[in-house]
Design goal:
Shape: globular
Distance between the termini: 29 Å
Structural class: mainly beta
Number of helices: 0
C-alpha cells in the first residue's frame, strides 16, 4: 500500500431524481434513465443506463445492470456495471460483480466472483 487511500464520494440525495423511501417494499422490474436511490426493500430486476444508489438500510434482492452501482446497503444478486461498482463500509453484497472498476471501503462484505474488463468492451472482445 502506498499510504494513499481511495475514498468513495458520498451520495448526495439532492442530485438523485427518484428515491424509493425506507417504507417502500417493491417487487418487480424497474427500468429508468435517470439516477435512482433505493432506501427500502426491492426484489426483482434493475436495468438502467444510469446510476443506482443503495441506501444504508436498503435490502435489495435483484439482478442489477446499471452504469454505476454505489451501495451502502445489502444486495443479494448479480451486479453488472458499465462504469464502476462502489461498496461503502456498510455494504453487504452476495453475488457476482462484473465491472471495469471496483472500489471497496474497508469494512464492507463481498462474497462472490468478480470479473473486470476494460471499460466499454464486452467480454467477447478480450
Amino acid at each position: 500500500m502506498t499510504g494513499r487511500e481511495i475514498h468513495i464520494k458520498d451520495i448526495d440525495e439532492v442530485a438523485i431524481d427518484t428515491i424509493l423511501a425506507e417504507d417502500i417494499d417493491f417487487e418487480g422490474e424497474v427500468t429508468f434513465g435517470r439516477p435512482l436511490m433505493i432506501k427500502g426493500r426491492f426484489r426483482g430486476r434493475v436495468d438502467t443506463s444510469s446510476d443506482l444508489f443503495v441506501g444504508e438500510q436498503a435490502v435489495v434482492e435483484a439482478t442489477i445492470r446499471a452504469y454505476r452501482v454505489s451501495s451502502k446497503g445489502r444486495i443479494t444478486g448479480d451486479i453488472t456495471a458499465v462504469s464502476r461498482v462502489e461498496l461503502f463500509s456498510t455494504a453487504r453484497v452476495q453475488g457476482d460483480i462484473e465491472t471495469p472498476d471496483l472500489v471497496m471501503e474497508s469494512g464492507c462484505v463481498y462474497n462472490g466472483a468478480c470479473r473486470m474488463h476494460v471499460a466499454g468492451k464486452s467480454n467477447e472482445a478480450r
